[in-house]
């Protein structure tokens, strides 16, 4: 019996660039429409392909699926991917999901950018179970490439965008507040710049400041000189006591000192259940 050439042509076409665009868009929309997890996994593992620049069709990895779940806040899907694939769901996605070769693994930064605190919490819980400390630190503290994220870490982004919940989650799970971006700024420098540039969300920014300094026993940051040289301006923005203490002229308030000890002694997983008075927007930088 002669081969049904037409059938084989159609099959070859199944992984063509055009067909990949079609199936990947359908998968993207299915995640956006929050379709059930089993259906999404069925589509991901059997039907949907994305096209890579070197000219090949690729199935979506769990890590690429998690990026879609993050963008569309599909929490059930994110939970499934993290439970089933653990840290593999946080692996580097293929080239078409990245800016360039210098891009960091994007999940943590994407969670902060879109303020997906619930999924970020799931991701932090997954990292907690990861035995590879080096990989964990890299995921938390890696700087983005110069083009897409200005060489910033997820902590810098949380400060730039004033996301207190994300900030606390990251700090509580070991993100380092002393890492500098490509401009040499720490997350605290970025936050102080945001505070001085615009009065929008000032209360939220102050909560971020409160969280950040709890995890920075050594106040190493560039803006310190600026605080010392313009005390009047900064006192208006963050309060006299905070300026004196951040610029090294007096010790932090008793409240901050106590909270630092509490933060150090509380296990990571209990940080989110801190008492109400520590929750946004009630963090106090100075004693009342
Ligand atoms: Zn780049």
From TrEMBL:
ANK repeat boundaries on the chain: 150-182
This protein's UniProt keywords: ANK repeat
Keyword Signal: no
PROSITE patterns associated with the record: ANK_REP_REGION, ANK_REPEAT
Origin: domain of life: Eukaryota
Entries under PANTHER family matching the protein: ANKYRIN DOMAIN-CONTAINING (PTHR24133), ANKYRIN REPEAT DOMAIN-CONTAINING PROTEIN 9 (PTHR24133:SF16)
This protein's name: Ankyrin repeat domain 9
Taxonomic source organism: Tachysurus vachellii
């Amino acid at each position: 019996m002669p081969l049904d050439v037409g059938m084989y042509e159609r099959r070859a076409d199944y992984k063509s660039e055009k067909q990949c665009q079609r199936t990947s868009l359908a998968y993207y929309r299915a995640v956006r429409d929050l379709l059930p997890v089993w259906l999404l996994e069925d589509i991901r593992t059997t039907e949907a392909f994305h096209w890579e620049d070197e000219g090949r069709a690729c199935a979506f990895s769990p890590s690429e699926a998690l990026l879609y779940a993050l963008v569309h806040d599909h929490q059930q899907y994110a939970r499934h991917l993290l439970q089933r694939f653990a840290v593999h769901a946080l692996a580097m996605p293929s080239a078409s999901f990245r800016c360039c070769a210098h891009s960091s693994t994007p999940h943590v930064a994407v969670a902060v950018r879109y303020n997906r605190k619930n999924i970020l919490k799931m991701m932090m819980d997954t990292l907690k179970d990861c035995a590879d400390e080096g990989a964990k630190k890299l995921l938390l503290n890696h700087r983005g490439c110069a083009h897409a994220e200005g060489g910033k870490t997820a902590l810098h982004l949380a400060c730039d965008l004033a996301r207190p919940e994300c900030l606390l989650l990251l700090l509580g799970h070991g993100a380092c507040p002393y890492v500098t971006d490509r401009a040499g700024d720490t997350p605290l420098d970025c936050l102080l710049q945001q505070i001085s540039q615009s009065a929008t969300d000032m209360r939220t920014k102050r909560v971020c400041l409160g969280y950040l300094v709890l995890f920075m026993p050594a106040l190493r940051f560039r803006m310190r000189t600026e605080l010392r040289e313009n005390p009047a301006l900064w006192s208006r923005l963050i309060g006299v006591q905070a300026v004196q203490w951040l610029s090294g002229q007096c010790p932090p308030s008793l409240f901050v000192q106590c909270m630092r000890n509490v933060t150090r002694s509380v296990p990571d997983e209990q940080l989110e259940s801190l008492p109400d008075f520590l929750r946004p927007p009630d963090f106090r930088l100075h004693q009342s």
